[in-house]
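Course assignment 3, question 2. Fill in each field.
Student: A.L.
Task: Predict the tertiary structure for the chain below.
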Amino acid sequence: MTTWAIQTTSQRRSRQVQTFRSRARPMADAGHDILPLRAEAEALKPDAVALRRDIHAHPEVGFEETRTAAIVADRLRGLGLAVETQVGRTGVVGLLQGGAPGPTVLIRADMDALPMEELSDAPYASTDPRAMHACGHDGHTAIGLMAATLLASRAEALRGAVKFVFQPAEEALAGARAMIHDGVLEDPTVDVALGLHLWTGSPVGTVSTKAGPLMAGADTLDITIRGRGGHAAMPHHTVDSIVVAAHVIAALQTVVSRNVSPLDAAVVSFGQIDGGTAANIIPETVRIGGTIRAFHNDVRLDIVKRVQDVAQGVAQSFGAEADVAAAPVCEPTVNDADAAELVIGVARELLGDSAVLPTAGVMGSEDMSFFLNRVPGCFFFVGAEPASGPTYSHHSPYFDFNEDAMPVGGALIAGAALRYLGPRA
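Answer field:
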């Protein structure tokens, strides 16, 4: 989360949090009967599975989701929603107006695939070797449409509105910002935002979330070591940028262990090192690429500063230079306490007390954060472990999830929206 983002959104979000809290607590014990949602969602499962498999077979990467967006828009129009397309380039927004004025709930589903080849032998495997739904966004899209169907049948009884946001380019951490730029949080103004992620590490029928930071913010690191190149047989005439880079990487391993409180989770990792053109030439420069992950903005900023100081100090000790560029990519995903309480309460009502699993959070990043750092809301994980047990992780070329999780997700997110909006007076 960037400093400018905090400064420009904090006042508005503070007002909306207060509004949310004034509404959320009384509605936890009153309003719509949400128990029928489970059976209704199960009845919608065959269609949702067929849709998910069709989308899975025809994946589209970020900002190229034209086929998927057309399917979504057509289905939303069929439900009687007001539909706007090309929001944030390829995003779709469907607005469901209730029978009486009231607040607006945003329900978000991401649509994009990953730029990778699928290696599974599923009958619905990707038909495009350049793309694959390896993170469940095909399921999220189907769940979003399931929730739209469940709530559209209750439109006249609703107080307020539901804005269904089908977002592009989550994997690039760019789609949410594009939709916000195009005004998705306005007209009508969104009061609370809800989103989910299918999670193959948890059993079907379970939900995980918590108040506060749920997923980490991310920064990219690009470090260039500048030495003095020369012949590998005469290293004393050089400043060996490869040796310097190795020492910089080793020294930076202490940034988290010695400069971050053990009570604050953070990661500094390097996935790229590039330098040199031949085995007998010491290169002039070496480039190191990495990432920073942290749940709190102040921790992130401290890490960035420490990385700069350590890298430059180590390089100087060898007579080299280090240019450090750190760029924020994604804000931490931070759940509002009352919104998380609302979702957990609905999960217990629909699934039972034991269905809510504790979570310490996830160090991965998610651009739902850009919504949640502007309006209060909750992001949560829906268990989708395959029936055969844990298999391949998200982003694996063999990834798949248990489709029995889709009715759970659809009923839960629709139920949370109903609980928040309350019945028409």
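Instructor remarks: The CA atoms of residues 35 and 350 lie 6 Å apart. The longest strand covers residues 100-110.
Grade: pending
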